[in-house]
Amino acid sequence: MSLSLRLAGEWDTSLSRIPDACVCTALRMLSRFVTRPMERMLAAHGLTLTEFQTLVSLHAAPMSALGLTRRLRIDPAPTSRALARLRERALVVRTSSRRLACWSLTEAARTHVEVLDLLWREVDSQARDALGPELARKVIALVDRLPRAIPPESPGWFD
């Protein structure tokens, strides 16, 4: 039985030109290609991409876990894991013991983010070069138009 699903990125580039190639898998492949250098740079500093995005978001202003979830457009579980790991490393603190309290950066984290900002510029420049300026602008514009929160697939447990 033949599948209707087509994956982009075949070695034979004529196959990738098919109009019915799966956009979702193509975007995932592109995402991995573009984010790999950033993940390597962050791994040298003991951070994941989600932890880095969390630090950058909190550098702008203290935020609740729900606010971070909406800002990063990810599910609550990865946000909670990132905050827990950053808290263990004394990079973030809760502003109070209330359930929906805001999180903020420690001074050590502020310094860490400012150092990472210098390294990020080079990695971001390489990603923009790989995509080309027009596609880079379009991707950023598309993300800016995404809904603030991605609804769960079901009211039950999700990760």
CATH architecture of the domain at 35-144: Orthogonal Bundle
Assembly state: single chain
Helix fraction by DSSP (H/I, runs of at least 4)? 55-70%
- Show unreliable segments: none
Beta-strand level of the residues, as a percent range?
Answer: 5-15%
The gross shape turns out to be globular
The CATH topology of the domain at 35-144 is what?
A: Arc Repressor Mutant, subunit A
Radius of gyration: 18 Å
**What is the typical, i.e. mean, pLDDT?**
85
Summarize the main sheet.
3 strands, antiparallel
Order of H and E elements: HHEHHEEHH
Output the structural class: mainly alpha
Number of strands: 3
Number of helices: 6
Strand order of the largest sheet: 1-3-2
> Considering the protein shown, what is the CATH homologous superfamily of the domain at 35-144?
Winged helix-like DNA-binding domain superfamily/Winged helix DNA-binding domain
Q: Span from first to last CA? A: 33 Å
CATH top level of the domain at 35-144 is: Mainly Alpha
Report on this structure.
This protein has six helices and three strands, in the order H-H-E-H-H-E-E-H-H. It is mostly helical. The chain has a domain at 35-144: Arc Repressor Mutant, subunit A. It has a three-stranded antiparallel sheet with strand order 1-3-2. A hairpin with a 7-residue loop joins strand 2 and strand 3. The protein is globular, with a radius of gyration of 18 Å.
